[in-house]
Amino acid sequence: MKMPKIKNRYCPYCKKHTEHKVTQVKKQAASSLKYGSKVRARKRGKARGSGNLGRYSKPAVTSFKMTGKKSTKKTDLRFECKECKKQHTQRYGFRAKKVEFK
Description:
By secondary structure, the protein is mainly beta. It has one domain (2-101): Nuclear Transport Factor 2, Chain: A, CATH 3.10.450. The chain has 1 helix and 8 strands. The chain has one helix at residues 35-45; strands at 2-3, 6-11, 16-24, 73-74, 77-81, 87-89, 95-96, 100-101. A hairpin with a 5-residue loop joins strand 5 and strand 6. The longest helix is centred in the middle third of the chain and has 11 residues, at 35-45. It is elongated. The termini are close together.
């Protein structure tokens, strides 16, 4: 997918529309569980063998039907304001095999 290197966007720091330089960074892997959930799961694991473990007793999602690796990753675009030089990220990524800046 082709995208412009410079885009007019709203800057949440300047609170107005300015020119932004667009760059792409590698998508960071988000953890499937939040910190609190991990701690609870760990504590629950200490009493293994007593009863079912709620949502952790289900099989892995990968063993469900119609699952598998997607052929594309979601983009992680950063926008740098040309006035205040601050960066912000896009709200929602879109799937694309390749993003090219022209």
